[in-house]
Amino acid sequence: MNLKFHQTYWLSIITLFEKLIPLILLPVLLNDLGLGDYGILYLILTIVNFFLPVFSFGFNLFFSKEYSKKNENIFTKIFSNFLLIQFFFFLIIILIIFLLMFLNLLSINFFDLIILLLLPSSRVLNLAVKEIFIIKQQIKQSAILVLFIFIIDLTITLVSLKIFDFGYKSRIYGTSLALFLTSFFSLLYLRKYIYLKINRYYLFKWFLFGKKIIQYRIFGFILNQGNRFVIQFFLGEIYLGIYMVSLQIASPFLIIMKAFSSGWNSFIYNFLKTRPLKINFLLKVNILFFLFLTGVLICHQYITYNYFTLFIKSVDLNTVLIFQLLICIAYIFQNLYNIFFPILIYKGNQGFISKISLYLSSLNLFLNVFLVYYFESIIVACILFLINWMIMYSLTLIKTYKLIKSNS
């Protein structure tokens, strides 16, 4: 147990470090770009994020589930399938983009085209490699991977912005090239495990698992990020920029929670493999973590506001304070939900998650369109974001309780 706790601790630190890049760059990007270009930057990144579920097709969760349930080494069989499918998806996206360019429906220079193609595929590949290191308990390799991403991303972004004056594209260049280079060298490190041969059994099993997970990922994308398109469409890029600044100021709070989730996922998969789960244990974790997050939230409101006041001069932070507070409270319920999410995946309940994601994301999108247009205010989107995560958490808590009770 001490070894698992030690690994959970270091995974949390690694994830915390990984999430620092957008936070460090926020004052620099905002002061150089202004709210309008900052909004455009995150609109592009949001569009790219939409393709991530398509590229990954639930691989990370599938690999974690299969690897934790078996003692045999299934790494080669599953990962080789993943690489071949990624290559296939990459070719399809290239063909679609070139077709759009041929029909004059898309205008983009060749370098930007390559960068945008690399971004979703490299991010998915990078996440897969990191998941492999975590599941195989190679914490050192995972830490090195995160460190190199941090250094390369930060360097390329700042050089592109300050020296070459590429504007909002600087952030895209930095992220894309950092993920591509680290993924490339990670594959070289893992090359002895890679045999480019399709394993039909695991490919079919992955497909059955992934078709439910991709629904959850897409609906989750709408739930979390769909309101950005609504704000941009009805209120414009500057208001979107204000909303994104609110999200970034709330991000230190999210960073801490993501760090916990990364460690928790590794711990709970190993826990479920060796012993039955008790509802009392989960409720204790839930209550303790809620109290912990409440304390962190109070500290966050004081520290981050004073920090950003020193470095951000182009935005009146008083206008975004209430927005980021609502977002932070929503993040509390999001992370409490993440306590139960890996348990439901392990128990084969991804269909339930997809179903509630569909209903809530559809309702959320409809309400955002209607209410943001009617009130012409960002605060409506923030309130809806909070309400949706409160409902999502409540439903998964009830489902997990019933599942454990029926198996006891």
Structure description:
There is one protein chain. The chain has helices at residues 2-18, 20-50, 52-56, 59-69, 75-102, 110-135, 139-162, 169-189, 200-235, 237-274, 279-311, 321-346, 350-375, 378-407. Helix content is 86%, strand content 0%. The two termini are 23 Å apart. The chain is mostly helical. The relative contact order is 0.13. It has 14 helices and no strands.
Distance between the termini: 23 Å
Oligomeric grouping of the chains: single chain
* Rounded mean pLDDT score: 80
Assign an overall shape.
globular
Low-confidence stretches: none
- State the order of secondary-structure elements, H for helix, E for strand: HHHHHHHHHHHHHH
Q: Sheet bearing the most strands, described?
A: none
Structural class: mainly alpha
Task: Outline the secondary-structure elements.
Elements: H1 2-18, H2 20-50, H3 52-56, H4 59-69, H5 75-102, H6 110-135, H7 139-162, H8 169-189, H9 200-235, H10 237-274, H11 279-311, H12 321-346, H13 350-375, H14 378-407
Helix pairs in contact: 1-7, 1-10, 2-7, 2-9, 2-10, 4-6, 5-6, 6-8, 7-8, 9-10, 9-13, 9-14, 10-11, 10-12, 11-12, 12-14, 13-14
